[in-house]
Amino acid sequence: MLIRCIDCHACSKYDDTSVVVRKMVGLVTGWLILVTFDAVLQPVLMYGLGACPRIGYMADFNASMVTGHWYEIERSFYLMELISSCVSVDLEENNFKRQFDVYVKSRSRVSGIFSISEGTASPTKKDPSMFLYKVSSKLPRVVSRYLPGAGYYQVVSTDYNQYAILYSCSNFHLFHTDLVWIWARKKEIDAELRAKIYQLLNKNHIDPERLTLPKNKNCTEDY
Questions:
Q1: Which of 4, 82, 124, 147 has the fewest CB atoms in 10 Å of its CB?
Q2: Is the CB of residue 151 less than 8 Å from the CB of residue 133?
Q3: Number of helices and strands (H, E) in the chain?
């Protein structure tokens, strides 16, 4: 049965009240979703409300000295590396283009096959320790900039000869997600160096408890 409002003024007030109620319900629902999302996923995916935290830049950072071969020692949860193992990275300086050619080698834990992902890392105007990484692709630039792995990476700390800490963060307006990697020149690091790295992470308000050891099995000697 269709009910028609006789009092136009009363109908207008009713409509205004309904709009306000719907907006309030929407805001509360959105807040509950964020809180639930935070409680469930934060232990796995580093997620936080608000914009990305500001991490201080390295003093006197020398980009040329980070070139060479690196091994992945630990990392935070990263969906793209969920089935990856034996990850190593080669950085080659390209003086002509003022960037670094990046080669990421990994082994699939499912197929056992090694693969290489290529890209370029360019220092940003913000700081030499902040790089913009682009995945090599034949896709249009507008599309390739959103490929997995593409984005900004910051070298939080490194001594160039033993270890490097990398950090990446993405803003999603109301929240952010971030990733952390520990690289080393050797396949393993000792307890003393690991403790030092953890102290540096804590100093930069990055929880080392988020890090996991890569499941490296059946790696080649020279991976």
A1: 4
A2: yes
A3: 3, 9
DSSP state of 212: B
SS3 label, residue 223: coil
Whether 11 contacts 4, CB under 8 Å: no
What is the identity of the amino acid at 123? Answer: P
Distance, in Å, from the CA atom of 104 to the CA atom of 119, rounded to the nearest integer, reads 8
> What gap in Å lies between CA 63 and CA 65, rounded to an integer?
5
**Per-residue pLDDT tens digits for 110-129:** 888 899 999 999 999 989 99
Residues paired with 183 in a beta bridge = 72, 164
- Say how many Å lie between the first and final Cα of the chain, rounded: 75
74: its two tokens = 């630990």
Q: Three-state SS for 133?
A: strand
The pTM assigned to this predicted structure is: 0.75
